[in-house]
Every structure is written in C-alpha cells, then in structure tokens.
Design brief:
This protein has helices spanning 2-16, 21-38, 52-65. The protein has three helices and no strands. Helix 1 (2-16) packs antiparallel against helix 2 (21-38). It has 69 residues and is mainly α.
C-alpha cells in the first residue's frame, strides 16, 4: 500500500503542477484512495480492474469523511 500511496500522492502533485498546501491535502486523499484499492487484492492485482469512476467515487467519499481548513 505504501508504494501506491506514494504514486497517488505524487501523481496528484504532478497533475496540479504545484506543491501548495491545498494540493498536498488533495494528494494525501488521492494517495490514501490508491492505497485502499491496493489492499483490497493481493499485491497490485486490484489496481488492474479499478476504473476512473471508482477512484473518483472513493475520493469523494473520503473527502466527506475528513474535514480540513
């Protein structure tokens, strides 16, 4: 899960093109979401089947559970 977290985190920062605090907060959510998909299967096998819609739905669910400034 740690490698998947790092990939989701860095991918989010890279897409945004800046490391501002708001971007880092979003990156933590994206990293956590990608790690959560990883631990649903053995190794990275679950990531082979995950869709962009599933990722977005989980990001939205995660955001609804956490509160930040």
């Amino acid at each position: 899960g740690g490698d998947r977290f790092a990939g989701g985190f860095r991918g989010c920062i890279g897409r945004a093109g800046n490391p501002r605090p708001g971007t880092r907060r979003r990156a933590v959510i994206h990293g956590s979401v990608m790690a959560s998909f990883c631990v649903e299967g053995i190794g990275a096998s679950r990531l082979l089947d995950v869709t962009p819609a599933e990722i977005q739905a989980r990001v939205e669910k995660f955001r609804s559970l956490v509160q930040f400034d």
